[in-house]
């Protein structure tokens, strides 16, 4: 499971010109799921995400977590995070999980993140053509892969 975390001062995700979610201070999480992913990957990532110290304290040092700042989150499914660009110029998405595998894991990820944060998170619509607007605060962008825990 791969994620791109972007610390934002505001963000939204829309589908078919309809706004699905809007947040202010928090993170946008682009989530890529592969066939080998399990609930253990979800638990590990959600725990890391809510405790990741990427928000400034009073001295302007990144010492605070999403929990510390009572920040919000938007989760956007993004199979292209598993693109292989080794051959040719057309990315291969063979590592990305098909919907039958990915959707239950995506839904479990959202539920686990909500439980970890103690509040609802915004989402896009799985598999849809979405428009994500954000102001990356910092900018702070973190890449994480549950297969690279150590």
UniProtKB/TrEMBL annotation:
<dbReference type="GO" id="GO:0019478">
    <property type="term" value="P:D-amino acid catabolic process"/>
</dbReference>
<keyword id="KW-0694">RNA-binding</keyword>
<feature type="short sequence motif" description="Gly-cisPro motif, important for rejection of L-amino acids">
    <location>
        <begin position="138"/>
        <end position="139"/>
    </location>
</feature>
<dbReference type="Pfam" id="PF02580">
    <property type="entry name" value="Tyr_Deacylase"/>
</dbReference>
<comment type="subunit">
    <text>Homodimer.</text>
</comment>
<dbReference type="GO" id="GO:0106026">
    <property type="term" value="F:Gly-tRNA(Ala) deacylase activity"/>
</dbReference>
<dbReference type="InterPro" id="IPR003732">
    <property type="entry name" value="Daa-tRNA_deacyls_DTD"/>
</dbReference>
<dbReference type="GO" id="GO:0000049">
    <property type="term" value="F:tRNA binding"/>
</dbReference>
<comment type="similarity">
    <text>Belongs to the DTD family.</text>
</comment>
<keyword id="KW-0820">tRNA-binding</keyword>
<protein>
    <recommendedName>
        <fullName>D-aminoacyl-tRNA deacylase</fullName>
        <ecNumber>3.1.1.96</ecNumber>
        <ecNumber>3.1.1.-</ecNumber>
    </recommendedName>
</protein>
<dbReference type="GO" id="GO:0051500">
    <property type="term" value="F:D-tyrosyl-tRNA(Tyr) deacylase activity"/>
</dbReference>
<dbReference type="GO" id="GO:0005737">
    <property type="term" value="C:cytoplasm"/>
</dbReference>
<dbReference type="GO" id="GO:0043908">
    <property type="term" value="F:Ser(Gly)-tRNA(Ala) hydrolase activity"/>
</dbReference>
<comment type="function">
    <text>An aminoacyl-tRNA editing enzyme that deacylates mischarged D-aminoacyl-tRNAs. Also deacylates mischarged glycyl-tRNA(Ala), protecting cells against glycine mischarging by AlaRS. Acts via tRNA-based rather than protein-based catalysis; rejects L-amino acids rather than detecting D-amino acids in the active site. By recycling D-aminoacyl-tRNA to D-amino acids and free tRNA molecules, this enzyme counteracts the toxicity associated with the formation of D-aminoacyl-tRNA entities in vivo and helps enforce protein L-homochirality.</text>
</comment>
<keyword id="KW-0963">Cytoplasm</keyword>
<keyword id="KW-0378">Hydrolase</keyword>
<dbReference type="InterPro" id="IPR023509">
    <property type="entry name" value="DTD-like_sf"/>
</dbReference>
């Amino acid at each position: 499971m791969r994620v791109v975390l972007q610390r934002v001062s505001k963000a939204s995700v829309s589908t078919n010109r309809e706004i699905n979610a809007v947040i202010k201070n928090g993170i946008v999480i682009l989530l890529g799921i592969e066939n080998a992913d399990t609930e253990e990957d979800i638990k590990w990532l959600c725990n890391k995400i809510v405790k990741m110290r990427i928000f400034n304290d009073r001295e302007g040092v990144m010492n605070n977590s999403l929990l510390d700042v009572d920040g919000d989150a938007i989760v956007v499914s993004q199979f292209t995070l598993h693109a292989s660009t080794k051959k040719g110029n057309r990315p291969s998405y063979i590592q990305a999980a098909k919907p039958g595998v990915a959707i239950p894991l995506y839904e479990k990820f959202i539920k686990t993140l909500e439980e970890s944060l103690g509040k609802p998170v915004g989402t896009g619509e799985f598999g849809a053509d979405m428009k994500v607007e954000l102001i990356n605060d910092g900018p702070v962008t973190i890449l994480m892969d549950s297969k690279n825990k150590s």
